[in-house]
TrEMBL record:
InterPro entries per UniProt: DhaK_dom
Name recorded for this polypeptide: DhaK domain-containing protein
GO annotation (BP), single: glycerol metabolic process
GO molecular function: glycerone kinase activity
Amino acid sequence: MGRLIELYGLKTPIRKTGNYMTSNDMYGISLTFLRLADPQWLRYLQMPTDAYAWK
């Protein structure tokens, strides 16, 4: 993945790993890239949260 990210010139200021969305008895990975329409959203995504799905 590192090579593809570099090849396409993608920036990844936030990286989250964990079991955020799982499937029963299935293996594999899921990658999600989000294009921020407004740079201010990055600040919001980096803020602390009590949301269960982001812990």
